[in-house]
Design brief:
This protein has 153 residues and is an alpha+beta fold. The protein has 3 helices and 5 strands. The chain starts with 27 loop residues before the first helix and ends with a helix. 12% of the residues are buried.
Amino acid sequence: MVRVWLAPRLSKYSMGWLMGVPGTPASTAACASVAGRFTPSEIWVVGEVQSFDRNNGRHRYFELVERESKDLLARVSAVLFEKDFQRIRDKLERKDSDMRLRDGLDVRLRCRVDLYTKSGSFQVQVVDVDADYTTGKILLKRDQILQELEAMG
């Protein structure tokens, strides 16, 4: 667990005092710098892939969501840069030739927290996948479906 102590005068509107200029509005670059100091360099994130971008561009964009039943509990934007996408795609295909990143796939991804300064929004930059976790989730779903079909007769 990462614990962050924020001084009482820190607000979401003014973080300039961290840069040595009290009361000045913080730029998104300054926020990114501060966020980088208080977050681990990489984290593991578990979620379901949603809105996976299948275009032929260099990077892939999607969301990781956490659901309880059909209710959405959490969502984070994710980006997968070209070199990481190729490596992750190959890693998943080595595990199972039919496994690909797609909507509805439960994954465990190693990520870096990133502040996209153009929009001022946080996202995760995906750098690796736990293929064993993903394969296990698929097998569990398969077994559940087979048990349900068996119970139906």
